[in-house]
Amino acid sequence: MTVLFITYSIDTYNNPTTLGLFRKLVERGIEVVVASEYNNFVSPIPEVKHIDIYISDSIKTINPFKWIKHRLRYYYQIFKIIKPNKPDLLIGVDAKGITLARECQRINRLLRFKNVRLDFFSFEMFFGDEGAEKRKEILACRHISNLIIQDELRNELLRKENKIPNNVQSFFLPVAPLLSKSEGIVRINKPLKIREKYNLSDNIKLIIFFGSFAEWSGAEWIIHAAEASIKDTVFVIHSRFKFNERDPIQKKIIELNKNSHSIILSDYYINTAEEIIDFLKQFDAGLVFYIPFNNIYTGKNTYNIGYSSGKFSHLMAAGVPVITNNLPTYSKLNSQYNFGFVVNDKNDLVDLLNNCPDFSAYKENCSRLYHEVLDPSSAIDNYVNHIITTNSPN
Length: 394
Prior knowledge:
This protein has helices at about 15-25, 65-85, 95-110, 135-140, 150-160, 195-200, 220-225, 250-260, 275-280, 300-305, 310-315, 330-335, 345-355, 365-375, 375-390; strands spanning about 1-5, 30-35, 50, 90-95, 115-120, 145-150, 170, 205-210, 235-240, 265, 285-290, 320-325, 340-345. Mean pLDDT is about 90; it is low at about 180-190. It contains 15 helices and 13 strands. It is of the alpha/beta class. Helix content is about 40%, strand content about 15%. The strands form two sheets. Strands 3-2-1-4-5-6-7 form a seven-stranded parallel sheet. Helix 1 (about 15-25) crosses helix 15 (about 375-390) and helix 11 packs across helix 14 (about 365-375). It has two domains: about 1-175 and about 375-390, Glycogen Phosphorylase B (Rossmann fold), CATH 3.40.50; about 195-375, Glycogen Phosphorylase B (Rossmann fold, 3-Layer(aba) Sandwich). Strand 9 (about 235-240), helix 8 (about 250-260) and strand 10 (about 265) form a beta-alpha-beta unit.
């Protein structure tokens, strides 16, 4: 049996949920093929086959010959995906992935006289009233068998937005690492020990922020807190990419790093989820901010973040308390599990840190939240069992 996973996401091999799914499929003897336009990434799972795609389903031209040439090239690329791999299941990721996967389903039926199932794996949600082009995505969703999404909140929103038929089954897979899969994994890099490298004493509170450093992720809040020179507090900003002085926000943090002892910039590459957790365990607290803006990517998709934040789930898995902003999911989870603190604005953040909270008192709560809510292992097992059952010969 072959599962063809079609994605335009740059994070396919960094997303702990997709890697967990790939591992489980391989363990069950299922061939996994990933079709992605990002060919410079290599799967950390050797059994997963990667193929490159260079496909755009639209062209801006009024020349009919150019349009015909483009369509022929488009369908030829789909032919090259389908013919050698002979998929038994197609999984499309997000709007572009599900649109291409639906075309692959159509071409597969013509080539092989076989209708294969189509599943939709959603990480990002796009809304028509925020400017997203929804027509092709909605049409593709008419033909899906299953929807894989992070939680009930996002499931309800996406079903309504994409007019997903009622008979489509939903599987809830949080974006979170699988700790049960850590055994036997070889760490390529030992975690960077911040206290040792920068000669910081144990009374210094280390606060970690990792991921995209941008306005929507609370960069201005973090800069404001760093500029406040909070006693015995150091902020570590980690990115897998080099910080870019041409970006106005990142330029601020680079300058602050040069002129202040309260900021440390870290940009070395961490290979696996296991290594990320090893790295995070040294910190007293983590910052997870999602500031909604009125656009396609950081509007409702950000406000209704649900269980789709890899930053939050990795910190919970590492047992690191979190300071986050006041969003529905985090406010509700904190009232249930007391994982850390919810602040309303950047001044709240500074006031909180000036009061020197005892972050260690929250560590066990974080681990409990991960195991009871975010651990995706049983959800992945359920989905893989469903794949095998529904695609087994009668």
